[in-house]
Amino acid sequence: EVQLVESGGGLVNPGGSLRLSCAASGFTFNDAWMSWVRQVRQAPGKGLEWVGRIKSKINGGTADYAAPVKGRFTISRDDSKNTLYLQMNSLKTEDTALYYCATDYRGSFEIWGQGTMVTVSS
Amino acid sequence: DIVMTQSPDSLAVSLGERATINCKSSQSVLYSSNNKNYLSWYQQKSGQPPKLLIYWASARESGVPDRFSGSGSGTDFTLTISSLQAEDVAVYYCQQYYSTPATFGQGTKVEIK
Fold it and tell me: How far apart are CA A82 and CA A7, in angstroms?
């Protein structure tokens, strides 16, 4: 069964750090480009926002980021563990959201996890 | 960044009737070299992650019922549900992947009238 399972969310103070994980199974993870997408729960429409993406190693393994998180968030992958990571530093209240990992195939997000909630609050 | 604007924000349709959702991009998402529109549609039911329905503006993802169809080109796109079923109650999002960052519309909530 194709599956993505996020973990690592929680409550953190502004300025704090958190690392999210995304465990993949059921597909060839090392071939996949992967993205993080977040969804603000309280905003009207509960909009979706792309956070960033990491390419497969064979395509360079580089990462791109959305402007609001660039310089604070880092995406990495461990293909030996079929796991994607999102290291979040200098967290702000506006980073509060449900964070999804998703496969990024041709720019469309085919497979999604169930998400992990991050709350930044004092 | 490319801004995606959906209309309407919500609509209520009777069971078996047609539902139409529009999506407009602030610039063209048609890539001339391959004549493909870099536009996807997603369905999000309450408490669930989004589900990919349509990619390349009109290609249906495997397993998606054929009552869902996508159309349009350039900057104007439409998702049509030809005969609304109870299980189609959800929020629908368009998304462009023509340029980074990928961006989503604000969503359209579809309900039963």
Answer: 14
pLDDT tens-place string over residues B64-103: 999 999 999 999 999 999 999 999 999 999 999 999 999 9
Across chain A, the runs of DSSP E, i.e. the strands, are: 3-7, 10-12, 18-25, 34-39, 48-54, 63-65, 73-78, 83-88, 97-105, 108-112, 116-120
Q: In this structure, are residues B95 and B39 in contact, taking their beta carbons and an 8 Å threshold?
A: yes
| Closest Cβ–Cβ partner in B52, B103, B107 for A108 | B52
CB of A106 within 8 Å of a chain B CB? The answer is: yes
In angstroms, the CA A116 to CA A57 distance is 25
Furthest-apart CA atoms within chain A: distance in Å: 42
- B51 and A CB contact within 8 Å: yes
For residue A72, what is the enclosing H or E element? none
Name the residue in chain B with its Cα closest to that of A69: B101
* Distance from C-alpha of B111 to C-alpha of B109, rounded to nearest angstrom: 7
> What is the per-residue pLDDT across B3-39, written as a single tens digit (0 to 9) for each?
999 999 999 999 999 999 999 999 999 999 999 999 9
- Are A109 and B104 within 8 A, CB to CB? no
- Provide the token pair at B16: 């078996």
